[in-house]
Amino acid sequence: MAGDVLSLMTGEVLEDVELTLGELCRRCGVPAEHVFELVEQGVAEPVGRDPGVWRFRGVSVYRVRCALRLERDLGVNAAGAALALDLLEELERLRVRRWRLED
Amino acid sequence: MEFKDYYNIMGVERDATQDEIKRAYRKLARKYHPDVSKEADAEQRFKEVGEAYEVLKDPEKRAAYDQLGANWQAGQDFRPPPDWDQGFEFHGGGFTDADAAGFSDFFESLFGRGFSQGGGRRTGFSARGEDTHAKVLIDLEDAYHGATRGVTLRHTELGPDGRPRVQERTLNVRIPKGVRQGQHIRLSGQGGAGMGQGEAGDLYLEIEFRPHPLYHVEGKDVVMELPVAPWEPALGATVKVPMPTGAVDLKIPPGSGNRRKLRLKGRGIPAATPGDLYVVLNVVLPPADSEAAKAAYRQMEQALAFDPRAHMGG
Protein backbone atom coordinates (compact mmCIF):
# COMPACT_ATOMS: atom_id res chain seq x y z
CA MET A 1 0.00 0.00 0.00
CA ALA A 2 2.93 2.30 0.73
CA GLY A 3 3.70 2.54 -2.97
CA ASP A 4 0.13 3.61 -3.59
CA VAL A 5 0.42 6.43 -1.11
CA LEU A 6 3.56 7.77 -2.66
CA SER A 7 2.72 7.63 -6.32
CA LEU A 8 1.13 10.79 -7.59
CA MET A 9 -2.01 10.48 -9.65
CA THR A 10 -3.03 12.82 -12.36
CA GLY A 11 -6.59 12.69 -13.53
CA GLU A 12 -8.53 14.59 -16.10
CA VAL A 13 -10.97 17.34 -15.24
CA LEU A 14 -14.29 16.04 -16.48
CA GLU A 15 -15.54 19.52 -17.30
CA ASP A 16 -12.62 20.14 -19.65
CA VAL A 17 -12.88 17.01 -21.78
CA GLU A 18 -15.06 16.12 -24.74
CA LEU A 19 -16.47 12.66 -25.19
CA THR A 20 -17.55 10.71 -28.22
CA LEU A 21 -20.82 8.79 -28.19
CA GLY A 22 -18.90 5.56 -27.54
CA GLU A 23 -17.02 7.04 -24.61
CA LEU A 24 -20.18 8.43 -23.08
CA CYS A 25 -21.93 5.05 -23.43
CA ARG A 26 -19.02 3.26 -21.85
CA ARG A 27 -18.81 5.64 -18.93
CA CYS A 28 -22.51 5.47 -18.28
CA GLY A 29 -22.83 1.76 -18.95
CA VAL A 30 -25.68 2.03 -21.44
CA PRO A 31 -26.18 1.19 -25.12
CA ALA A 32 -26.19 3.98 -27.69
CA GLU A 33 -29.96 3.64 -28.26
CA HIS A 34 -30.56 4.71 -24.70
CA VAL A 35 -28.31 7.74 -25.11
CA PHE A 36 -30.16 8.68 -28.33
CA GLU A 37 -33.36 8.79 -26.33
CA LEU A 38 -31.81 11.07 -23.70
CA VAL A 39 -30.26 13.31 -26.35
CA GLU A 40 -33.67 13.67 -27.92
CA GLN A 41 -34.95 14.98 -24.58
CA GLY A 42 -32.01 17.33 -24.12
CA VAL A 43 -30.44 15.49 -21.17
CA ALA A 44 -27.17 15.61 -23.08
CA GLU A 45 -26.53 18.08 -25.87
CA PRO A 46 -23.85 16.92 -28.28
CA VAL A 47 -22.17 19.17 -30.80
CA GLY A 48 -22.03 17.77 -34.33
CA ARG A 49 -24.44 16.72 -37.04
CA ASP A 50 -24.63 12.98 -36.71
CA PRO A 51 -23.84 10.46 -33.99
CA GLY A 52 -20.59 9.44 -35.67
CA VAL A 53 -19.07 12.85 -35.03
CA TRP A 54 -20.98 13.82 -31.89
CA ARG A 55 -18.96 15.43 -29.12
CA PHE A 56 -20.39 15.62 -25.60
CA ARG A 57 -19.20 17.84 -22.80
CA GLY A 58 -17.62 15.80 -20.02
CA VAL A 59 -20.31 16.75 -17.51
CA SER A 60 -22.86 14.96 -19.69
CA VAL A 61 -21.71 11.85 -17.84
CA TYR A 62 -23.31 13.24 -14.70
CA ARG A 63 -26.53 14.29 -16.30
CA VAL A 64 -26.97 11.03 -18.19
CA ARG A 65 -26.22 8.95 -15.13
CA CYS A 66 -28.60 10.94 -13.00
CA ALA A 67 -31.30 10.51 -15.66
CA LEU A 68 -30.67 6.76 -15.72
CA ARG A 69 -31.03 6.54 -11.94
CA LEU A 70 -34.26 8.53 -12.03
CA GLU A 71 -35.62 6.28 -14.79
CA ARG A 72 -34.68 3.15 -12.93
CA ASP A 73 -35.67 4.19 -9.42
CA LEU A 74 -38.72 6.36 -10.00
CA GLY A 75 -40.18 4.71 -13.06
CA VAL A 76 -40.15 7.92 -15.13
CA ASN A 77 -39.38 7.91 -18.84
CA ALA A 78 -36.68 9.92 -20.60
CA ALA A 79 -38.89 13.00 -20.88
CA GLY A 80 -39.74 12.84 -17.18
CA ALA A 81 -36.10 12.40 -16.21
CA ALA A 82 -35.14 15.39 -18.38
CA LEU A 83 -37.80 17.53 -16.74
CA ALA A 84 -36.69 16.45 -13.25
CA LEU A 85 -33.06 17.23 -14.11
CA ASP A 86 -33.91 20.73 -15.31
CA LEU A 87 -36.00 21.41 -12.22
CA LEU A 88 -33.30 20.04 -9.93
CA GLU A 89 -30.73 22.34 -11.49
CA GLU A 90 -33.06 25.30 -11.18
CA LEU A 91 -33.65 24.38 -7.53
CA GLU A 92 -29.92 24.21 -6.95
CA ARG A 93 -29.43 27.68 -8.45
CA LEU A 94 -32.17 29.07 -6.20
CA ARG A 95 -30.64 27.40 -3.16
CA VAL A 96 -27.27 28.98 -3.91
CA ARG A 97 -28.91 32.37 -4.42
CA ARG A 98 -30.87 32.13 -1.19
CA TRP A 99 -27.71 31.15 0.63
CA ARG A 100 -25.95 34.26 -0.70
CA LEU A 101 -28.83 36.56 0.26
CA GLU A 102 -28.91 35.11 3.77
CA ASP A 103 -25.26 35.90 4.18
CA MET B 1 -29.36 -9.02 13.44
CA GLU B 2 -32.25 -6.62 13.65
CA PHE B 3 -35.72 -7.44 12.50
CA LYS B 4 -36.97 -5.07 9.79
CA ASP B 5 -40.62 -4.10 9.75
CA TYR B 6 -41.10 -3.63 6.02
CA TYR B 7 -44.73 -2.58 6.39
CA ASN B 8 -43.79 0.13 8.84
CA ILE B 9 -40.96 1.36 6.61
CA MET B 10 -43.39 1.67 3.71
CA GLY B 11 -46.08 3.20 5.91
CA VAL B 12 -48.73 0.67 4.85
CA GLU B 13 -50.96 -1.77 6.70
CA ARG B 14 -50.12 -5.46 6.72
CA ASP B 15 -53.15 -6.15 4.57
CA ALA B 16 -52.34 -3.46 1.99
CA THR B 17 -53.03 -4.37 -1.61
CA GLN B 18 -50.19 -4.67 -4.11
CA ASP B 19 -51.42 -1.43 -5.68
CA GLU B 20 -51.30 0.38 -2.36
CA ILE B 21 -47.78 -0.85 -1.81
CA LYS B 22 -46.72 0.32 -5.23
CA ARG B 23 -48.19 3.78 -4.69
CA ALA B 24 -46.54 4.06 -1.27
CA TYR B 25 -43.23 3.08 -2.81
CA ARG B 26 -43.44 5.59 -5.67
CA LYS B 27 -44.17 8.37 -3.22
CA LEU B 28 -41.36 7.47 -0.82
CA ALA B 29 -38.91 6.89 -3.68
CA ARG B 30 -39.53 10.40 -4.97
CA LYS B 31 -39.19 11.81 -1.47
CA TYR B 32 -35.94 10.10 -0.57
CA HIS B 33 -34.24 9.64 -3.92
CA PRO B 34 -30.64 10.75 -3.30
CA ASP B 35 -30.62 12.75 -6.54
CA VAL B 36 -33.74 14.62 -5.51
CA SER B 37 -33.76 14.88 -1.73
CA LYS B 38 -31.56 17.15 0.34
CA GLU B 39 -32.34 15.36 3.58
CA ALA B 40 -29.20 14.20 5.31
CA ASP B 41 -30.26 10.57 5.64
CA ALA B 42 -31.95 10.40 2.24
CA GLU B 43 -29.67 7.70 0.86
CA GLN B 44 -30.15 5.49 3.92
CA ARG B 45 -33.91 5.93 3.82
CA PHE B 46 -34.03 5.32 0.08
CA LYS B 47 -32.19 2.03 0.45
CA GLU B 48 -34.43 0.98 3.29
CA VAL B 49 -37.53 1.74 1.27
CA GLY B 50 -36.07 -0.06 -1.76
CA GLU B 51 -35.37 -3.12 0.31
CA ALA B 52 -38.87 -3.12 1.81
CA TYR B 53 -40.39 -2.76 -1.65
CA GLU B 54 -38.23 -5.52 -3.06
CA VAL B 55 -39.91 -7.87 -0.61
CA LEU B 56 -43.45 -6.54 -0.50
CA LYS B 57 -43.92 -6.03 -4.25
CA ASP B 58 -43.24 -9.67 -4.92
CA PRO B 59 -46.18 -11.79 -3.70
CA GLU B 60 -43.90 -14.78 -3.16
CA LYS B 61 -41.41 -12.94 -1.01
CA ARG B 62 -44.16 -11.08 0.75
CA ALA B 63 -45.93 -14.31 1.69
CA ALA B 64 -42.66 -15.75 2.98
CA TYR B 65 -42.01 -12.60 5.00
CA ASP B 66 -45.56 -12.60 6.36
CA GLN B 67 -45.28 -16.09 7.72
CA LEU B 68 -42.53 -14.93 10.06
CA GLY B 69 -45.51 -13.57 11.96
CA ALA B 70 -46.76 -10.15 12.92
CA ASN B 71 -45.31 -10.15 16.42
CA TRP B 72 -41.84 -9.02 15.54
CA GLN B 73 -40.84 -5.49 16.45
CA ALA B 74 -38.52 -3.40 14.32
CA GLY B 75 -35.00 -3.56 15.72
CA GLN B 76 -35.69 -6.73 17.70
CA ASP B 77 -32.90 -9.30 17.59
CA PHE B 78 -33.79 -11.72 14.85
CA ARG B 79 -32.67 -15.14 13.66
CA PRO B 80 -34.52 -16.76 10.80
CA PRO B 81 -36.19 -19.99 11.94
CA PRO B 82 -34.51 -23.05 10.43
CA ASP B 83 -35.89 -23.93 7.02
CA TRP B 84 -38.15 -20.96 7.26
CA ASP B 85 -38.54 -20.72 3.49
CA GLN B 86 -39.44 -24.37 3.01
CA GLY B 87 -42.34 -24.84 0.75
CA PHE B 88 -42.00 -21.47 -0.94
CA GLU B 89 -41.11 -21.41 -4.53
CA PHE B 90 -39.31 -18.28 -5.62
CA HIS B 91 -38.87 -17.22 -9.17
CA GLY B 92 -36.31 -15.17 -10.94
CA GLY B 93 -33.76 -15.15 -8.18
CA GLY B 94 -33.74 -13.10 -5.08
CA PHE B 95 -32.11 -9.97 -6.27
CA THR B 96 -34.41 -9.26 -9.12
CA ASP B 97 -34.02 -5.87 -10.70
CA ALA B 98 -33.01 -3.91 -7.63
CA ASP B 99 -29.47 -3.07 -6.68
CA ALA B 100 -29.17 -5.41 -3.76
CA ALA B 101 -25.69 -4.37 -2.72
CA GLY B 102 -27.01 -2.05 -0.05
CA PHE B 103 -29.61 -4.37 1.44
CA SER B 104 -29.49 -5.29 5.11
CA ASP B 105 -28.20 -8.46 6.75
CA PHE B 106 -31.81 -9.12 7.60
CA PHE B 107 -32.77 -9.17 3.93
CA GLU B 108 -29.79 -11.32 3.02
CA SER B 109 -30.48 -13.87 5.72
CA LEU B 110 -34.00 -14.29 4.38
CA PHE B 111 -33.58 -13.98 0.66
CA GLY B 112 -29.88 -13.72 -0.04
CA ARG B 113 -28.12 -17.01 -0.48
CA GLY B 114 -30.93 -19.37 -1.40
CA PHE B 115 -32.11 -16.93 -3.97
CA SER B 116 -28.90 -16.37 -5.78
CA GLN B 117 -28.68 -20.10 -6.47
CA GLY B 118 -32.12 -20.07 -8.01
CA GLY B 119 -31.31 -16.95 -9.97
CA GLY B 120 -28.19 -18.48 -11.36
CA ARG B 121 -25.12 -16.46 -10.49
CA ARG B 122 -23.17 -16.83 -13.67
CA THR B 123 -19.70 -18.23 -13.32
CA GLY B 124 -16.94 -16.87 -15.49
CA PHE B 125 -18.95 -13.69 -15.69
CA SER B 126 -17.02 -10.49 -16.35
CA ALA B 127 -18.17 -7.00 -15.58
CA ARG B 128 -16.53 -3.64 -15.34
CA GLY B 129 -16.13 -2.44 -11.75
CA GLU B 130 -18.42 0.31 -10.63
CA ASP B 131 -17.41 3.94 -10.68
CA THR B 132 -17.00 5.50 -7.29
CA HIS B 133 -17.36 9.09 -6.12
CA ALA B 134 -15.81 11.19 -3.41
CA LYS B 135 -15.41 14.82 -2.53
CA VAL B 136 -12.09 16.49 -2.13
CA LEU B 137 -11.74 19.71 -0.15
CA ILE B 138 -9.14 22.12 -1.46
CA ASP B 139 -8.09 25.64 -0.63
CA LEU B 140 -8.74 28.48 -3.03
CA GLU B 141 -4.98 28.94 -3.30
CA ASP B 142 -4.72 25.41 -4.72
CA ALA B 143 -6.85 26.45 -7.68
CA TYR B 144 -4.47 29.33 -8.35
CA HIS B 145 -1.24 27.39 -8.14
CA GLY B 146 -2.20 23.76 -8.54
CA ALA B 147 -1.39 21.38 -5.69
CA THR B 148 -1.01 17.84 -4.55
CA ARG B 149 -3.56 16.58 -2.07
CA GLY B 150 -3.75 13.36 -0.11
CA VAL B 151 -7.28 12.02 -0.39
CA THR B 152 -8.35 9.40 2.10
CA LEU B 153 -11.14 7.15 0.92
CA ARG B 154 -13.12 4.68 2.95
CA HIS B 155 -15.00 1.79 1.51
CA THR B 156 -16.59 -1.33 2.90
CA GLU B 157 -15.50 -4.71 1.72
CA LEU B 158 -15.93 -8.27 2.89
CA GLY B 159 -13.10 -9.53 5.08
CA PRO B 160 -11.82 -13.12 5.05
CA ASP B 161 -14.32 -13.98 7.80
CA GLY B 162 -17.17 -12.88 5.57
CA ARG B 163 -17.95 -9.80 7.64
CA PRO B 164 -17.91 -6.34 6.13
CA ARG B 165 -15.10 -4.12 7.31
CA VAL B 166 -14.06 -0.61 6.52
CA GLN B 167 -10.93 -0.25 4.47
CA GLU B 168 -9.03 2.98 4.10
CA ARG B 169 -6.69 4.02 1.38
CA THR B 170 -4.95 7.25 0.65
CA LEU B 171 -4.30 8.55 -2.84
CA ASN B 172 -1.99 11.35 -3.71
CA VAL B 173 -3.82 13.37 -6.31
CA ARG B 174 -2.65 16.23 -8.44
CA ILE B 175 -5.07 19.14 -8.28
CA PRO B 176 -4.68 20.94 -11.59
CA LYS B 177 -4.29 24.69 -11.64
CA GLY B 178 -7.52 26.43 -12.60
CA VAL B 179 -9.88 23.84 -11.20
CA ARG B 180 -13.24 25.16 -10.06
CA GLN B 181 -15.90 24.45 -7.48
CA GLY B 182 -18.04 21.47 -8.43
CA GLN B 183 -15.73 20.18 -11.14
CA HIS B 184 -14.78 16.52 -11.23
CA ILE B 185 -11.41 14.88 -11.57
CA ARG B 186 -11.60 11.41 -13.05
CA LEU B 187 -8.97 8.90 -11.99
CA SER B 188 -9.15 6.07 -14.41
CA GLY B 189 -9.13 2.57 -12.92
CA GLN B 190 -9.29 3.75 -9.29
CA GLY B 191 -12.95 2.85 -8.76
CA GLY B 192 -14.41 -0.49 -7.74
CA ALA B 193 -12.65 -3.69 -8.82
CA GLY B 194 -14.06 -5.47 -11.84
CA MET B 195 -15.51 -8.98 -11.79
CA GLY B 196 -13.74 -11.72 -13.68
CA GLN B 197 -11.89 -10.21 -16.60
CA GLY B 198 -13.65 -6.88 -16.21
CA GLU B 199 -11.54 -3.80 -15.71
CA ALA B 200 -11.79 -1.60 -12.64
CA GLY B 201 -14.19 1.34 -12.61
CA ASP B 202 -13.15 4.97 -12.35
CA LEU B 203 -12.98 7.24 -9.35
CA TYR B 204 -14.57 10.66 -9.66
CA LEU B 205 -13.43 13.34 -7.25
CA GLU B 206 -15.68 16.35 -6.88
CA ILE B 207 -13.84 19.57 -6.09
CA GLU B 208 -15.10 21.58 -3.18
CA PHE B 209 -13.43 24.71 -1.87
CA ARG B 210 -12.91 24.91 1.84
CA PRO B 211 -14.95 27.87 3.10
CA HIS B 212 -12.63 30.85 3.25
CA PRO B 213 -12.98 33.75 5.68
CA LEU B 214 -12.12 36.33 3.01
CA TYR B 215 -13.20 34.99 -0.37
CA HIS B 216 -16.01 33.18 -2.00
CA VAL B 217 -16.02 31.80 -5.47
CA GLU B 218 -18.53 32.15 -8.29
CA GLY B 219 -17.48 30.02 -11.23
CA LYS B 220 -14.05 31.29 -12.07
CA ASP B 221 -14.60 34.68 -10.46
CA VAL B 222 -13.54 35.28 -6.90
CA VAL B 223 -15.33 37.75 -4.66
CA MET B 224 -13.74 39.34 -1.65
CA GLU B 225 -15.25 41.61 0.97
CA LEU B 226 -12.83 44.37 1.88
CA PRO B 227 -13.46 46.26 5.13
CA VAL B 228 -12.75 49.98 4.69
CA ALA B 229 -13.00 53.07 6.92
CA PRO B 230 -15.64 55.62 5.81
CA TRP B 231 -13.04 58.13 4.62
CA GLU B 232 -11.17 55.67 2.42
CA PRO B 233 -13.82 55.32 -0.31
CA ALA B 234 -14.89 58.96 0.25
CA LEU B 235 -11.48 60.50 -0.23
CA GLY B 236 -9.81 57.76 -2.18
CA ALA B 237 -7.03 55.62 -0.78
CA THR B 238 -4.50 52.97 -1.59
CA VAL B 239 -4.82 49.95 0.69
CA LYS B 240 -2.99 46.66 1.00
CA VAL B 241 -5.19 43.73 0.09
CA PRO B 242 -4.28 40.11 0.77
CA MET B 243 -4.94 38.12 -2.38
CA PRO B 244 -4.65 34.43 -3.12
CA THR B 245 -1.52 35.23 -5.11
CA GLY B 246 -0.04 37.55 -2.46
CA ALA B 247 -0.78 41.05 -1.19
CA VAL B 248 -1.31 43.88 -3.68
CA ASP B 249 -1.88 47.61 -3.40
CA LEU B 250 -5.44 48.41 -4.37
CA LYS B 251 -6.43 51.91 -5.39
CA ILE B 252 -9.88 52.92 -4.17
CA PRO B 253 -11.12 55.80 -6.33
CA PRO B 254 -12.40 58.84 -4.42
CA GLY B 255 -16.17 59.15 -4.20
CA SER B 256 -16.75 55.38 -4.05
CA GLY B 257 -19.89 54.29 -2.23
CA ASN B 258 -20.36 51.45 0.17
CA ARG B 259 -20.67 48.01 -1.54
CA ARG B 260 -18.93 49.32 -4.64
CA LYS B 261 -17.42 46.47 -6.60
CA LEU B 262 -13.92 46.96 -7.91
CA ARG B 263 -12.97 44.51 -10.61
CA LEU B 264 -9.43 43.24 -10.90
CA LYS B 265 -9.44 41.78 -14.34
CA GLY B 266 -7.82 38.39 -14.77
CA ARG B 267 -7.05 37.99 -11.04
CA GLY B 268 -9.67 35.28 -10.56
CA ILE B 269 -9.07 31.57 -11.05
CA PRO B 270 -6.58 30.93 -13.84
CA ALA B 271 -7.88 29.64 -17.17
CA ALA B 272 -7.44 30.36 -20.87
CA THR B 273 -9.64 33.35 -20.11
CA PRO B 274 -8.96 33.74 -16.42
CA GLY B 275 -11.70 34.79 -14.04
CA ASP B 276 -11.86 38.21 -12.39
CA LEU B 277 -11.44 39.13 -8.79
CA TYR B 278 -14.08 41.41 -7.36
CA VAL B 279 -13.36 43.46 -4.29
CA VAL B 280 -16.55 44.61 -2.59
CA LEU B 281 -16.05 47.63 -0.35
CA ASN B 282 -17.61 47.15 3.03
CA VAL B 283 -17.63 50.38 5.03
CA VAL B 284 -17.07 49.78 8.72
CA LEU B 285 -17.99 52.58 11.11
CA PRO B 286 -15.40 53.52 13.71
CA PRO B 287 -16.82 53.12 17.23
CA ALA B 288 -17.73 56.34 19.04
CA ASP B 289 -16.07 55.14 22.19
CA SER B 290 -14.01 58.16 23.23
CA GLU B 291 -14.57 61.87 23.63
CA ALA B 292 -12.40 62.57 20.59
CA ALA B 293 -14.40 60.08 18.46
CA LYS B 294 -17.71 61.54 19.58
CA ALA B 295 -16.44 65.03 18.79
CA ALA B 296 -15.46 63.91 15.31
CA TYR B 297 -18.92 62.44 14.68
CA ARG B 298 -20.56 65.66 15.97
CA GLN B 299 -18.39 67.67 13.65
CA MET B 300 -19.42 65.49 10.74
CA GLU B 301 -23.07 65.88 11.66
CA GLN B 302 -22.75 69.66 11.57
CA ALA B 303 -20.55 69.91 8.50
CA LEU B 304 -22.39 67.47 6.22
CA ALA B 305 -26.10 68.17 6.55
CA PHE B 306 -26.50 64.54 5.53
CA ASP B 307 -29.90 62.85 5.51
CA PRO B 308 -29.59 59.15 4.56
CA ARG B 309 -33.41 58.87 4.60
CA ALA B 310 -34.09 61.77 2.26
CA HIS B 311 -35.41 59.43 -0.45
CA MET B 312 -37.86 57.77 1.94
CA GLY B 313 -40.13 60.79 1.81
CA GLY B 314 -40.48 60.81 5.62
The main sheet of chain A orders its strands as 3-4
Q: Please state the overall shape of chain B, judged from the principal axes of the Cα atoms.
A: elongated
Can you summarize the main beta sheet of chain A? 2 strands, antiparallel
Domain count of chain A, please report it.
1
Q: What percentage of amino acids of chain A are in beta strands?
A: 5-15%
Count the domains of chain B: 3
**Major interchain interface with per-chain residue totals:** A-B, 26 and 31 residues
Mean pLDDT, all residues of chain B: 83
Task: Describe the 3D structure.
The complex is a heterodimer of chains A (103) and B (314). Chain A is mainly α and 103 residues long. Chain A has five helices and four strands; from the N terminus they run αβββααβαα. In chain A, 60% of the residues lie in helices and 8% in strands. Chain A has a two-stranded antiparallel sheet with strand order 3-4. Mean pLDDT of chain A is 87; it is low at 1-5. With 314 residues, chain B is an alpha+beta fold. Chain B has three domains: 6-119, DnaJ domain (Helix Hairpins, Orthogonal Bundle); 132-209, HSP40/DNAj peptide-binding domain, CATH 2.60.260; 215-304, HSP40/DNAj peptide-binding domain (Sandwich). Chain B contains eight helices and eleven strands. In chain B, strands 6-7-11-10 form a four-stranded mixed beta sheet. In chain B, helix 2 packs antiparallel against helix 3 (42-56). The radius of gyration of chain B is 31 Å and the shape is elongated. Chain B starts with 5 loop residues before the first helix and ends in a 10-residue tail after the last helix. At the A-B interface, helix 1, strand 1, strand 2 and helix 4 of A face helix 2, strand 3 and strand 4 of B. Strand 1 (8-9) of chain A pairs parallel with strand 3 (164-175) of chain B.
